[in-house]
Amino acid sequence: MNNSNMAANDYPAYLIPYIDFDRLNNQNKQDVRKQHIQQKPQTNPKPVRTSTQPARNTQRPIVQKRKNNYAKTVKKIFIFLFVILAFFGVFKTIYKNPSQGKVTNFFWERTLVIEKMVHSKKVGSFLPEGAKILSSRDEMIGYGTDKKGNLKKIYNKIYTYEVDEWVFSRDLKTYGNGKSPNWSTSTLQPNEQIVSRDEVFYVYVLDYKKNIRNYIVPRDLWDELKKGQKVDLSIFDDKKETDLFKQTETGKVLH
C-alpha cells in the first residue's frame, strides 16, 4: 500500500493530531488584511503644516484666568460697597435724629440810641460839670451829735442851677430777614448824638418735629451758619431761645 495515497480517515484516530481549521482560516484572513493595509500607498497624504510663528506661551491661559478672577472680585467688592452706601442713604433719609435741625432763616435787629442836648434848670445838692449856680440855701436834713455828744442839726447845701446836659431822645431801629444787617440812616438833629449801638441776631431752626425754634446767637456763629444747613441742636444749648419773632409759612419773619 502506498502511504501517500492513504486518506486521512484511513489512519487511526490516535495517530491524527487535532487541527482547528476555522480558527486557522480566520487568522489567515486577518494577516492578509494587515499586509494589504500596510502595502496600500497613500494617494492623498495630508501635508505637514509647519508654523513660522513662535511657540505659544503655555502660561498665558493661566495668567488670563487670574486676571478674570481678579476683575470678578473687584466687581463684587464694588457691588457690595454700592449696596452698603445705598442702604445707609435710605436709612439716613428715613431716620430723623432728634438732636438735629435745619436752618431755615435768619433775622437781625439793630438799634441806635440817640440823646439830645437840652438846657435845664435844676435843684440839687450835686453840681454837675458846667453848671451855673443861680442860688443856694442850707436845708436841714437831720440831726447828729458833735464831739462832745451834744445834739445838733445837720444841714446840706442845696443849689439851684442851670446846665446843658445830654438826655435820652429816641431809638432808631432797623431789622429784617436774611444776612444784610444795616444801621439806620436817619438824619440826626444838630443837638443829637449816638450814644450806643445795639444789635441782636436770630437764627431759625426747624427741628425733627417740624417746629420752628428761634435762638439768639452771637454774630460770629450767625455769620458761620448757612440757610438750609443741617446742624446739631446742641450748639444752641447755651443760647437764649425766644418766641419774640414768629416765622410764617412763606419764610418771612414777623416782628
Structural class: alpha+beta
Task: Give the N-terminus to C-terminus distance in angstroms.
Answer: 161 Å
Which residues form runs of ≥5 with pLDDT under 50? Answer: 1-8, 246-255
- The mean pLDDT is 77
Q: How many runs of DSSP E, i.e. beta strands?
A: 9
Total of DSSP H or I helical runs spanning 4+ residues: 3
> What proportion of the residues form beta strands (DSSP E)?
35-45%
- The succession of helices and strands, N to C, reads HHEEEEEHEEEE
Q: What share of the residues lie within helices? A: 10-25%
Please name the defining characteristics of this protein.
255 residues, alpha+beta, 38% strand, disordered N terminus
List the helices and strands and how they pair.
Elements: H1 21-39, H2 60-94, E1 100-124, E2 132-145, E3 151-177, E4 192-206, E5 212-217, H3 219-224, E6 230-232, E7 240-241, E8 246-247, E9 253-254
Antiparallel strand pairs: 1-3, 1-4, 1-6, 2-3, 4-5, 5-7, 8-9
Describe the structure.
There is one protein chain. The chain is α+β, with helices and mostly antiparallel strands and 255 residues long. The chain has a domain at 102-254. The chain contains three helices and nine strands; from the N terminus they run H-H-E-E-E-E-E-H-E-E-E-E. It has helices spanning 21-39, 60-94, 219-224, and strands at 100-124, 132-145, 151-177, 192-206, 212-217, 230-232, 240-241, 246-247, 253-254. Strands 1, 2, 3, 4, 5, 6 and 7 form a seven-stranded antiparallel β-sheet that branches. A two-stranded antiparallel ribbon has the order 8-9. A hairpin with a 5-residue loop joins strand 4 and strand 5 (212-217). The longest helix has 35 residues, at 60-94. The model is unreliable at 1-8 and 246-255 (pLDDT under 50).
